[in-house]
Design a protein that fits this description.
elongated, alpha+beta, five-stranded antiparallel sheet, 3 domains, 23% strand, single chain, 42% helix
């Protein structure tokens, strides 16, 4: 077996020679890799630009329609008595409210029995929803629901059976530590959600089931305890809320009144002794927040574009897109738009509403001017929402929304630039692959050539040794 290593025959540092020659072959990679790094930076930058452009479009879209301007807020002069909730469909309103009665759910209570002891009641309790008028009961439209009670049932067991039967009644147990009372309450408030309970004992009942019936609305705890009345007593009758709103009498089965005016709900908590004023008005804080979001979104992309295209003369360092026509054009277009006019409002420039342009192209809110403009909200709204079907004179919400959308759509300028950068990166990668493949071929050829040279030099070296030995022999034989 022959062991060989390139360079042994020739004495040359073949590995180093080949390495240096291959390095020369790969020199174009340095420029390609530098360019690839720059392209990746530019692609990442355009990812940021696309995201910020979309955010600007969203902020402008909110101001381009009514949703960004019609947010309402409600206030009550006595929130402890009358609370107010305002929805998205609400309009400005002023309400004067007097509450004379709150809605209540009917409740009844039984006599007490020893805690944990089955009272011995057996039979059927029939629950019927309806309305009490004095001592008279009028059944409602829904059918009565019956619950069977066993003599071994404790008060808690009876309550559980009633709650499982979907009677429209909530059963509970009150305990003072010694005795337990069974209580019933309508699941919902209102005069029409009262109830009666008919007790039908079976033959094994010891007379106790009647204690859980309720057919006499005049019964009280006192008459029940004295034995002059049978069954449960009325703890609270079912009531509707009674109130006036701007002098108009109203009733409600619930203390939560929805859509008293469109989008406005009232929560009644107390009977009032003085009129309560509820005001529904434009939420200027929400409007200011929407405007601030618009300014912030614009300033973010303006700063990104400015940083990307700048040239620092002192450090002689250029931004990654310095001189790029697409990026410079995008920044110029945005800044020009912010300085343009809108037709349809007495406010024609953003600066008229306090959104003032700065030297670096950013916007800064002049709070005094904006607060003044917000006192005429319809006029300020028009500055953003008027649609003239003209990109130069439409409201700023409309024109910026449409511009941003056009930039990031499938064939928009930002999207196309992103695609072009990605294509350049792909081409660069292919060019690097070609250089590396060429270098590999050259390296293989050089190794082959130097291996052949090494063998030839080894042969010559052997021949030289032989000739030298023969000459030495000849020289000896002639002396």
């Amino acid at each position: 077996m022959t062991i060989s290593s390139t360079g042994i025959g020739s004495g040359l540092d073949v590995k180093s020679i080949v390495s240096q020659l291959v390095a020369i072959e790969k020199q174009p990679l340095v420029q390609l890799q530098t360019k690839a790094s720059k392209l990746q930076t530019q692609l990442s930058l355009y990812g940021t630009i696309k995201s910020q452009m979309s955010a600007l479009g969203d902020a402008a879209a909110l101001l381009s329609g009514s949703s960004g301007w019609n947010t309402q807020t409600g206030s009550s002069s006595n929130a402890a008595a009358v609370g107010v909730n305002v929805g998205s469909t609400a309009s400005s309103a002023a309400l004067t409210i007097n509450v004379t009665q709150l809605a209540a759910a009917q409740s009844t209570a039984s006599l007490g029995v020893a805690k944990g002891v089955a009272p011995g009641a057996s039979g059927t309790l029939s629950f019927q929803l309806g309305t009490w008028t004095g001592g008279s009961f009028a059944a409602g439209a829904s059918a009565a629901v019956s619950v069977t009670v066993s003599a071994t049932d404790t008060v808690s067991a009876i309550a559980s059976k009633i709650n499982a039967a979907n009677t429209g009644i909530k059963a509970s147990v009150l305990s003072d530590g010694v005795n337990e009372r069974l209580t019933f309450q309508s699941s919902t408030s209102g005069a029409a959600m009262g109830f009666s309970v008919t007790a039908t004992p079976d033959s094994g009942d010891n007379g106790t089931l009647a204690n859980y019936g309720f057919t006499d609305a005049t019964a009280t705890n006192a008459t029940q305890s004295s034995g002059t009345s049978t069954g449960m007593f009325m703890g609270q009758s079912g009531l509707d809320a009674n109130l006036t709103v701007n002098g108009v009498a109203m009733t409600s089965a619930s203390n939560t009144m929805n859509n008293v005016t469109p989008g406005v709900s009232l929560q009644l908590s107390q009977v009032t002794t003085a009129p309560v004023t509820v005001i529904v008005a434009n939420d200027l804080a929400a409007t200011q927040k929407n405007i601030q979001s618009f300014v912030d979104a614009y300033n973010a992309i303006n700063a990104t574009l400015a940083e990307a295209t700048k040239y620092d003369a002192s450090t002689k360092i250029a931004g990654p897109m310095q001189g790029d026509a697409t990026t410079v054009g995008l920044m110029t277009a945005l800044r020009t738009m912010m300085g343009s006019t809108s037709v349809g409002s007495s406010l024609t420039h953003l600066s008229d509403a306090g959104l003032e342009r700065q030297k670096d192209g950013s916007l800064k809110i002049n709070q005094t001017k904006l607060s003044s403009a917000m006192q005429d909200l319809d006029n300020l709204k028009n500055l953003f929402t008027v649609n003239n079907s003209d990109a130069t004179t439409s409201g700023f919400g409309v024109k910026v929304r449409d511009f941003a959308h056009d930039m990031v759509t499938f064939d928009g300028r930002v999207t196309n630039k992103t695609a072009a950068l990605q294509k350049s990166i792909n081409n660069n990668s292919s060019d690097q692959d070609r250089v590396n493949k060429r270098a590999s071929v050259v390296e293989a050829q050089l190794n082959k050539q130097y291996a052949a040279l090494d063998l030839r030099m080894a042969d010559l070296s052997s021949l030289n040794s032989f000739v030298t030995a023969q000459l030495a022999v000849w020289n000896k034989s002639t002396t």
